[in-house]
Design a protein that fits this description.
- The complex is a heterodimer of chains A (328) and B (141).
- Chain A is an all-alpha fold.
- Chain A is built from 14 helices and no strands.
- Chain A has helices at 2-22, 26-46, 50-75, 86-104, 116-119, 121-133, 138-146, 148-169, 184-187, 194-216, 225-243, 245-251, 254-277, 292-324.
- The longest helix of chain A has 33 residues, at 292-324.
- Chain A is globular.
- The model of chain A has no long low-confidence stretch (mean pLDDT 89).
- The longest helix of chain B has 32 residues, at 74-105.
- In chain B, helix 1 packs antiparallel against helix 2 (30-52) and helix 2 (30-52) packs antiparallel against helix 3.
- Chain B is built from four helices and no strands.
- Helices cover 61% and strands 0% of the residues of chain B.
- The model of chain B is unreliable at 126-141 (pLDDT under 50).
- Classes of the chains: A mainly alpha (328), B mainly alpha (141).
Chain lengths: 328, 141
């Protein structure tokens, strides 16, 4: 039954993706991409990956749609139609298709417990989480402790991308249209749509509460810093959409957001430096407290907080950069 | 029927991958290329998460201290969870570059932009008024 449902959702994914790529109006394409993300998130849930589903729903369907729309407001939403080099493109696609389809027959069957991916290092993580860390969410344990170096790297990548965006279109970047009146849709938000405003503002406190729950309960249920940061940013962006960007900027000024982005990464790296100073290896949480599991849990909670602060700061700083472009 | 269900996720992965790939190579619109890249990326996410699935398994979260239950592989989930957030960061960096190209060349179509690209000065960070010339692209006083 789950198999059929999953097959149905995956087929919808393909149809929606085709529609998005075919649409000549980019606004339509972006909206279809939002639906596509939500479908993919549902499929992740069916594949027993609630943490990933939560992230995809918040980031893919929520924040990236807003960022794409803000970008479209600056670039225009019509795509020119022009004859393409069908022959070459089709040849490349067909060759790639044959290669990849042949390769899929070498793959282990879906759900096979003896597949290589299940039997190597992954099999060790579950008993090790029980013995060494003792938190119920194994994904969080692997993310924040066993693969803590990876995650630190990802946080730095996210921070670097935000720095790049701010250099390109941030408040200090050159802007040929600075001082122009700008689109009232973004500056003023949806103030004249009363039902949207009232319902939206009623929902925001719950999104914020849920973000905090996901942050601080991430060791026990699906969640963690990445999801919490994205949800927090989504709540503030929703407020910005309803009341206009300046209103969102008055809650947390962009200057503070840029500091948040850096402070989160610093907090994460700082834990590593503290463990070094206490005589352990970089990010070896065991030296943080006298008992193994307590020390690991302290380490995980602190670095997850760092991740959450950075992700929220980065996503909101990027949102402000796009929404304020040409309208400052 | 089982044969189809066993491989269905992989085939969908292939189809999505190719849809994204086709859009990247045939569309001239830069935003559309980025959307194609997102579809391509989602296909890879789907492959990873599908690979981690275990028959009869449950989500890798321990309920009621039952550590002996069969769990889905947590490792691909960790990798993809972080990749999604990195994905949106790179998407926004790409969009920022597209916005600057639009401002400099007045188009987000790469053929158009290249046709107007004889003069590379607009891309160099030049503040209005510093060099005395007005920026090309959308002009407003």
């Amino acid at each position: 039954m789950t198999g059929l449902l999953s097959g149905f959702i995956l087929s919808l994914c393909v149809l929606v993706a085709l529609g998005a790529m075919q649409a000549r109006n980019l606004f339509t394409a972006v909206m279809l991409m939002g639906i596509f993300s939500l479908l993919v998130a549902t499929e992740f849930l069916l594949l027993d990956a609630p943490d990933v589903a939560l992230t995809e729903a918040a980031v893919g369907a929520g924040i990236s749609t807003v960022l794409l729309l803000s970008a479209l407001a600056l670039t225009g939403e019509k795509e020119q139609s022009r004859p393409v080099h069908q022959g070459v493109a089709t040849f490349v696609i067909v060759v790639t298709a044959i290669l990849v389809v042949v390769a899929t027959f070498e793959m282990p069957l879906l759900g096979d417990p003896s597949a290589p991916v299940q039997t190597h290092v992954a099999a060790e993580y579950i008993p090790m989480t029980r013995d060494l860390i003792d938190i119920p969410n194994i994904v969080t344990a692997v993310l924040a402790s066993f693969r803590g170096y990876d995650t630190l790297g990802e946080v730095i990548v996210v921070l670097t991308a935000a720095i790049g965006v701010l250099f390109l279109i941030g408040p200090d970047a050159p802007d040929p249209r600075r001082g122009a009146a700008g689109s009232p849709r973004i500056t003023e938000g949806l103030k004249h749509h009363q039902p949207l405003r009232i319902v939206g503002k009623a929902v925001i406190p719950f999104i914020l509460l849920f973000a905090l729950y996901v942050q601080f309960h991430g060791e026990y249920s699906p969640g963690g810093g990445f999801q919490a940061g994205a949800l927090f940013a989504a709540a503030i962006i929703l407020y910005g959409l309803l009341e206009g960007r300046p209103a969102a900027a008055s809650i947390i000024p962009p200057r503070v957001l840029r500091m948040m982005a850096a402070i989160g990464a610093l907090l994460y790296g700082g834990v590593g430096v503290v463990t070094l100073a206490l005589g352990g290896n970089f990010l070896e949480y065991n030296v943080l407290a006298s008992t193994q599991t307590t020390a690991q849990q302290i380490g995980i909670i602190v670095i997850e907080a760092g991740v959450g602060i950075t992700v929220a700061g980065v996503l909101l700083a990027i949102y402000h950069a796009f929404a304020a472009r040409g309208r400052a | 029927m089982n044969f189809i269900l066993d491989y269905f996720n992989y085939w969908i992965f292939v189809v999505l991958l190719l849809i994204g790939f086709y859009a990247i190579i045939t569309r001239d619109n830069l935003v559309k290329k980025l959307l194609g890249l997102s579809v391509f990326q989602a296909a890879v996410f789907l492959l990873f998460i599908s690979a981690g699935k275990v028959d009869g398994g449950t989500a890798p979260i321990v309920l009621g201290g039952d550590w002996d239950a069969v769990f889905t592989n947590p490792l691909p989930q960790v990798l993809i969870l972080t990749a999604i957030v990195v994905g949106i960061s790179t998407l926004s960096l790409g969009l920022a570059i597209v916005v600057r190209i639009k401002e400099a060349y007045g188009s987000i179509d790469d053929v158009d932009a290249m046709a107007r690209g004889g003069d590379l000065r607009p891309l160099i960070g030049r503040r209005p008024g510093v060099n005395g010339d007005t920026p090309s692209g959308n002009s407003s006083p």
